[in-house]
Amino acid sequence: MKCIATVISRRTLLKRGACAAAVAAAPATARRRSSRSDAFLHDVQRRTFRFFWETTNPANGLAADRWPTRSFASIAATGFALSALPVGVERGFVGRRLAAERALTTLRFFAEAPQGPAASGMTGYKGFFYHFLDPATGARFGKTELSTIDTALLLAGALLVKNYFDRPAEKPIGEVPEILEGVAAWIASRAA
Known about the structure:
Layout: H1 10-25, H2 28-32, H3 35-55, E1 73-74, H4 75-90, H5 96-112, E2 124-125, E3 128-130, E4 132-133, E5 146-147, H6 148-164, H7 171-174, H8 178-191
Antiparallel strand pairs: 1-4, 2-3, 3-5
């Protein structure tokens, strides 16, 4: 399989990812031949990390939904930004302490964000979060809906950082359970 591409499309990216997975399982001699694939994947990881690091509001951890046109933050993008933090640490793109601080800021923001039935000024309701939020305040953007899938993507990022940042100095990250408990309590109340 040829693993060198001139145009990077979604199909090309998936094909390259399949090549990288096959190379990782290959003997060491075959891995040496994959330096272009390794360089490509490293570049994709670096660029992806930098996108999330640079477009996320460091004051609250909210990640931009699109760039370069700033409009609103997305809770799904925020979940992906959280997921990028361990990758950034492991690849040496950011120091562990800075990444842990960003994770804690984000988790604290969501744990303390206002939830309720009001049409404005809220970040979520009954443990779920609005799809789009004002990037500065974290309040519901316009008339956007509560989003189960985007809340799940946010929570996946939250779970990842809570498990990754497990050193004694990072203990506060694991002590921000409110964002997970809100959704779990609401689901349990509906199942009864």
